[in-house]
Amino acid sequence: MFSQSEENYIKAIYHLETISNAGISTNAIAKKLTTKASSVSDMIKKLSEKKLVVYKKYQGVKLTDYGKKTAANIVRKHRLWEVFLVEKLNFSWDEVHDVAEQLEHIKSPKLINQLDALLGFPTHDPHGDPIPDKDGNLKTIEKSLLSSLHKNESGICVGVDDSSSEFLRFLDKKGITLGKTITILEKEDFDDSLSIQMDDKRFSISNKIANNLYMKK
Amino acid sequence: MFSQSEENYIKAIYHLETISNAGISTNAIAKKLTTKASSVSDMIKKLSEKKLVVYKKYQGVKLTDYGKKTAANIVRKHRLWEVFLVEKLNFSWDEVHDVAEQLEHIKSPKLINQLDALLGFPTHDPHGDPIPDKDGNLKTIEKSLLSSLHKNESGICVGVDDSSSEFLRFLDKKGITLGKTITILEKEDFDDSLSIQMDDKRFSISNKIANNLYMKK
DNA sequence: ATAAATATTTAGACATGGCTAAAAATAGAT
DNA sequence: ATCTATTTTTAGCCATGTCTAAATATTTAT
Question: Strand D nucleotides below 7 A of a protein CB?
Fold first, then answer.
C-alpha cells in the first residue's frame, strides 16, 4: 500500500510521461505538484526504493512497469469516480476534479470493480480521457486538436486538453460538449482564430480554445 | 477542516458519549481507537484548542455543541456511504465498515447531499443505526434488546449492537436480517438462551446473540 | 575551456501523530 | 488518613512529509 503522497507523486510522473517520454525532471514534478524540488528529491528516493521508479541522480525518473501499473490504477479510480459524480450525482464536468482527487485514494478493489459495473463499464471520463482497465491498459482513440483541422473539415468533439473548471465553464457557455460535431468554416491567419459551425450556429473561437479541444475526424 | 485523525477521535468520543453521559476518560478513548493513552492525551489538547471538546485535566472530555455537530456530520457520512455500498454496489452488511471508514473523511458537502438524494434520503444504515440529518439531528426509534423481550412476545429486528463482520455473518447464516419478525417461544433460565420462531422455523439462540439484536415491539 | 546560469541534492528545521518510560494525580482499600 | 493501584500526563524519541538555505552538479553561452 502507498500513502496518499506517494500516490500523488506516482500519478504526477505518469501524467508527465504521457507528454515527454524522456526522464522526468525533479523540477517538472515539483511544478506539477506545486511543491519544492527538495521535497521531490526526497520522495524520489523513496519511490525508487519501492521499485516504482528508476532513478539516477541528476537524470530524472522513469516509472517501472510496476510503477506504471500502479499509476494506471490510480488514474482508473480517479476517472471512474468522475463518471460517477457526473452520471449519478449530477455534478457538472467542471466540479468533479477536486472530489475525485480525494476519492482516488480510497483502498478497496471491490469498491472500484462494483463502481465500474454500476456505471456500465465506461471507457472515458467526463472530459473524454480514457479509463484504464483493471490491468492498467488504456485504448487511446485517434484524436486531433481542433486547431489542426483544415477548412471545411468536420469532427466530433471527444475530449479536452485543459480540464480546468474555468475552461470547462467557458465551453458550457458556448454550448460545446463532448459528442458535438464541429465544422471549420474559416481559419483566420491573422490571429489563428476559427469560424466554426456547430448545430445550427456559426461563431468564432480563439486559437487558445481550439488548441484545447480534441476532435475525432 | 479537520485531519482524519482528528475526525476519528471526535467520532470515537461521540460514540462513547452515547453510552455513558459522563466525561469520557482518556483510557476509554485509547481503548476504542486501539492507541495509547499518551497519544490521546496529546490529541485532547488539540481538540480542546479547536473548541471541539471541553477538557479539564484528569476529568475526561465532553464534546461541545460544535463538537457534537461535527461528529454527527462524520457519522452521517459514514452511514450514507454504508447504504450506498449495500444498495448500489452490492456489498453485504458485513463488508461495508472498513470502506465507509475511509469514505467518511472525503470533504465535499455537495457529494454528501447528492448521495443522500441518490439513495432516497435513507433514515437508517444497513445495521439499523439512524442517519443524522444535515443539522446533526437523529431520530432514535424505540427499540429493545431481543434478550429483554418476554415469553410469547414478538418484535421486528431493527438493528444490531455489535456490527463486527463475524457477528453479521453469523446472522446471515441463521437467516436473521433487519425487518424479520421474531417471536420468543421459551426463555431458558439455565443458560439464558432463547427458543424463537422466525418465518416458519423454530430454533434456539444464545444469550450472547440476543444481547446484540435490537427489536421493535 | 571556462564562467555563468540552472537544476539537483543535502543538511537541518518544523509540524503532525504516534510510541515508551517515567512522573504526577486521582481513586480505592484498609 | 495513608498507602496502593490505577489513570493520566509529561518528556523525549521516531517516522512521514514538508520547507529553506547552502552545497554540488550540470548545462549553456561565450
Answer: 7-12, 16-22, 25-27
* pTM assigned to the model: 0.93
For B:98-137, CB contacts with A below 8 A are 98-99, 102-103, 106-108, 110-111, 114-115, 118
Q: Kindly list the residues from chain B whose CB atom is less than 8 angstroms away from the CB atom of residue A85.
A: 111
The residue type of A148 is S
The answer to whether B56 faces chain A, any CB pair under 8 Å, is: no
Cell of A13: 510522473
Supply the DSSP string of A17-54, one letter for each residue.
HHHH-SPBPHHHHHHHTTS-HHHHHHHHHHHHHTTSEE
Contacts 24+ apart (CB under 8 A), B33-39: B33/B8, B33/B9
The answer to whether A28 touches A16, Cβ cutoff 8 Å, is yes
In chain A, what are the helix, strand and coil shares in percent, each to the nearest 5?
45, 20, 40
Quote the pLDDT of residue B172. 95
Q: Alpha-carbon distance A180 to A183, whole Å?
A: 10
For B86-134, write each residue's pLDDT tens digit: 999 999 999 999 999 999 999 999 999 999 999 999 999 999 999 999 9
